Amino acid sequence: MNTHVDAYYDRQLVDEETHRSIILCKAVLDKQDSPVMTKIACHARIVALLDKLPVIRAFDRTRNTQNTSDLPDCAPKMRQLLVDRCMGYFNLARAFHGDGNVQNAASNYQRATTLGETLLQSVLAPRDEPAKNAEQRSELHSNTLTILRVALRSWAEVERAIGRVTSARRIEARVAALDTES
After folding, report:
1. Is the pTM of this model over 0.90?
2. Pick from 78, 67, 71: which is nearest to 12 by CA?
3. Inter-axis angle of helices 102-118 and 131-162, to 10 degrees?
4. How many whole angstroms separate alpha carbon 108 and alpha carbon 155?
5. In angstroms, rounded to a whole number, what is the distance separating the alpha carbons of residues 81 and 14?
6. Directed axis angle between helix 165-181 and helix 131-162, to 10°?
7. pLDDT in tens, 125-164
8. What is the pLDDT of residues 44-96, one digit of tens each?
9. CA dist 69 to 21, 65, 84, 153, Å?
């Protein structure tokens, strides 16, 4: 069962202008014939729009000043925005990687990884809650774990391409630890 919640229609979380901009960027990304640089610009725009949302900024401030295990639980719509932002950085990294820009790919894989790990440790961690919320949390947890694994593997590949073998080995160890945990 798909428990996706559309947070983009909640005007307390996402204003009308931001929602329209994200829809336009996604429409461009859906076109198969869009140039690579246009796709990179659209992915970057989506990430920038999500990063600027007051609820995302509040989450980041809280995350940066507290232990991640102390983060407050957030509503399903907020969780969806956080996972979408993680996915946005991952997609941006893949676009850079596909274009051969390994430096930008590496930094965006790192950002996606950091966000994914924070989400798994706090916001998406299992809790006692109503079944509907638990199901949505479980689905987002599974999606985020998948994104995280792929992002880590891709990041390690990029680090090797740049010549950072030691860094690549550390990242590969993180993938192995994730595989062991689940």
Report:
1. no
2. 78
3. 150
4. 9
5. 9
6. 160
7. 666 666 666 777 777 778 888 888 899 999 999 999 899 9
8. 999 999 999 998 998 888 776 655 444 455 667 887 888 899 999 999 999 99
9. 33, 12, 21, 26
Residue 104's contacts (CB-CB under 8 Å, 6 or more residues apart) are 93, 96
For 134-157, b/e burial (b = at least 16 CB within 10 A) is: eebbebbbebbbebbbbbbebbbb
Give the angle 109-110-115 at the CA atoms, nearest 5°. 100
Backbone angles phi, psi at 140, to 5 degrees: -65, -35
Q: Where are the alpha helices (DSSP H) in the chain?
A: 16-30, 36-52, 54-65, 76-99, 102-118, 131-162, 165-181
CA dist., res. 5 & res. 166, Å (int):
40
Q: Tokens for 74?
A: 């957030």
